[in-house]
Every structure is written in C-alpha cells, then in structure tokens.
Amino acid sequence: MTSDTVPIRPAATILLVRDDPGFEVLMVKRHHQIDFASGALVFPGGKTHQGDHDPAWEQHVTGWAETPADERPLRIAAIREAYEEAAIIIANDADGQPFCGDDRAGAAREAVAKDEKSFIELVRELEITLDLGALTVFARWITPDMMPKRFDTWFYVVKATDKQLAVCDGYETVDAEWIHPGEALRLEQAGERTIIFPTRMNLQLLAEAVSAQDAEDRAAARTLVPVLPVVERREGGAVLVIPADAGYGDIVEPMSNVRA
Questions:
Q1: What is the value of pTM for the model shown?
Q2: d(Cα 94, Cα 167) in Å, to the nearest integer?
Q3: Which of 28, 38, 36 is nearest to 9 (CA)?
Q4: How far apart are CA 27 and CA 42, in angstroms?
C-alpha cells in the first residue's frame, strides 16, 4: 500500500491537567503488544468509532450547539478514550456536578472498550451528560505520509477535578500517572521513558504553562495550525520538520529518532 492509499483516520487525544499537588498531566503507558506506540508514554486517546457519530448524542451532551459539527464526534471520542484507558469521564451528573465515577461505570469499562456495550448506552444508564464544552482545542497533528498508519489527531486539553482518579485498563494501557510535563520530558531524555515525537512536542508546548487554567487559556489563544511533519534531506541525513508558525518553534527532528 502506497502513501497515497493509506487511509487517514480521524482520532482524538485528551490532555487531562490538574493543579493538585502541582501542575500535572495524565499520561498512560501503552501495552508493549499494542501495534501503535507500544510501550510509550502517551496521552489517552485513539481513533473515532462509529458510535461517536450517533446523532442521538445531542440529547446526552452539553455544548452540542457551540461545538462545530465535525468536531462533535472527535470530542466524544476523546472523552470515551479517557474513560476506556483511564476510567475518567468528562461529564456532569443530574445535579450539574462533575461526574467522579461509580461502580457501574467501573464495571462497564471492558465491555465498552471491546464494543460489547456502546458508550452512549452507558451514559444513558448513568444519567450523565458529556461536557463537550470542557474541552479546549490544543493542537492538531497529521501523521506523515511515509508512515504505515496515518491519523488526523485532534488534541484537547481539559481540567480534571481532584476527585477523578485514573486507573489504567490493563489491556491497551499498563500504567497511568499524573506527571509534570517537564518531568516527563526529563525522564524521556534520561532514557527512563519512551515518548514518541508528537507527544514530546505537545509536552514541550504544555510545559510552557504554569497551571491547568493557564494551559487552557494558552490553548484558546493560539491559532490552530495543523501539523503535518514532512521529511527533508539535509546534511547529516533525513529530518522531520514541522510548520514554523504552529507554536513549537524551529523543530528539526532526525528521522533516526522517529518511531511508530
């Protein structure tokens, strides 16, 4: 299959941030047997599913009208992936309070992840509404055309409450940790964590913030520039470059550092 025929799949990733005990982001470690970013430290996320496009979601979310139509399934996917991979649902209960999980939500995780139960069915049972408006667009990255799998991934940042506890699923993810973006970058530099290029770039961007609110404010103020890394031949070998106006600075990444 050539690069021209590799399908570009829509996907969504969520950067859950908090300020207690300090400014941290939730990251999960991918299972080593997963075929994409195996063993890497990543933000919860994945490709959209058919159920994320169900028009019935209009009755089970807040922020529907304010969210562009093409973004609605992406935001639903981001919230679903955070639930499947880290047991956190960005939603409000019947009283309008942030939903912090319960036994029913915990028991249904595996069934939802395996498509044995639809996410919208669970949301109905829990009598909660997903909060699409809580998500702020952070970035958008498109996989380079020479990669065997390609994704058009939207990154969203959202503040988590101190009562939302992260629990890895043991299938796609084998660990979940709250970590300062700068500390994650330090561990990767020291060889103690594996972090793929797009995740590292967005950690660097996130590390410019000093708090969860600051991260959201910075994201809201940025002009969204889709990032499609391209390969250039330079002295010393092939490198990946990204748009200079995307907010990441002048980035030149040796291809020898790039892994799927």
A1: 0.90
A2: 24
A3: 36
A4: 5
Task: Please tell me the distance from the alpha carbon of residue 232 to that of residue 242, in angstroms, as a whole number.
Answer: 10
Helix (H, G, I), strand (E, B) or coil at 18: strand
Range of the domain at 128: 8-224
8 with 23: CB under 8 angstroms?
no
- pLDDT tens, 59-73? 999 999 999 999 999
- Residue ranges of the alpha helices (H) in 49-175? 72-86, 103-113, 119-126
Q: How many CB atoms lie within 10 A of CB 106?
A: 11
* C-alpha span between 200 and 204 (Å, rounded): 6
- Tens of pLDDT, residues 214-245: 999 999 999 999 999 998 888 878 888 999 99
Q: Is residue 241 part of a domain?
A: no
Q: State whether residue 144 is helix, strand or coil.
A: coil
Phi/psi for 126 (5° steps) reads -80, -15
- Asked whether residue 47 is assigned to any structural domain, the reply reads yes
| Longest CA pairwise span in the chain (Å) | 61
Sheet arrangement for strand 91-92: 61-62, 129-131, 91-92
C-alpha closest to that of 119 among 86, 66, 79: 79
Residues 6+ apart with CB under 8 A from 236: 254
- Return the CATH number at 214: 3.90.79.10
Give φ, ψ of 53 to 5 degrees. -95, 0
